[in-house]
Amino acid sequence: MSYFAAAAVRVEGGWTADEVSLRGVTDIDEVADRLRDVEPDADLSLLFVEAEDEYLVILRLDDGEDLRIFGSDSAYAEESRLGALLVGDLKTSVTGIEEGDEATPVAAGGGEETEQPAVDPEADPVGDADILADLGISAQKLLALCGHEGMLPADVTAEICQVLGCADEVEELREV
């Protein structure tokens, strides 16, 4: 299964991005080490792993510590070794739908808000949906982006990076 892994790291001067190879990793600690290696002094490091235009995993390190993970769909763990490594141990399923809240307004891609389910009913997002909440992307927004029909993982990453201010840096990696 093919994947694209991009690290976006924030240091005092702003954001930088670098592609990260996950070839040969044997556990989640090795993945975290490769993210740390991108910029050891980063105050915030994010790794976006997009697989087969279906799955997105976001990993976050604050000051190189406290790894947090969000996966757009637990099925990724069943589809590949890398998926099992990244999200296989995540037990917390998140739906983004509060009790009594059947639909959420979504304005993905800067379009008009429409009523639609907060997540794809076929998907089972797992992990920490609040992973980007302090950066301006609430759990509800993240789940809505991941569940929006027609949005590929690359589109979700681009939307997130636009909000964070590192869209150009990550997009340059795709063009290489």
Helix and strand arrangement:
Elements: E1 3-11, E2 14-19, H1 28-38, E3 44-51, E4 55-62, E5 65-71, H2 76-79, H3 81-87, E6 104-106, E7 114-116, E8 126-127, H4 139-147, H5 153-164, H6 167-175
Antiparallel strand pairs: 1-2, 1-3, 3-4, 4-5, 5-8, 6-7
Helix pairs in contact: 5-6
Please characterize this protein's 3D structure.
InterPro entries: tRNA_Adeno_NH3ase_assoc_put (IPR023869). This is tRNA adenosine deaminase. Residues 97-122 are annotated as: Disordered. The protein has 6 helices and 8 strands; from the N terminus they run ββαβββααβββααα. It is of the alpha+beta class. The chain has one domain (3-94, 124-173). A 6-stranded antiparallel sheet has the order 2-1-3-4-5-8, with helices on both faces. It has a two-stranded antiparallel ribbon with strand order 6-7. Strand 6 and strand 7 (114-116) form a beta hairpin. 39% of the residues are buried. Residues 96-119 have low confidence and may be disordered.
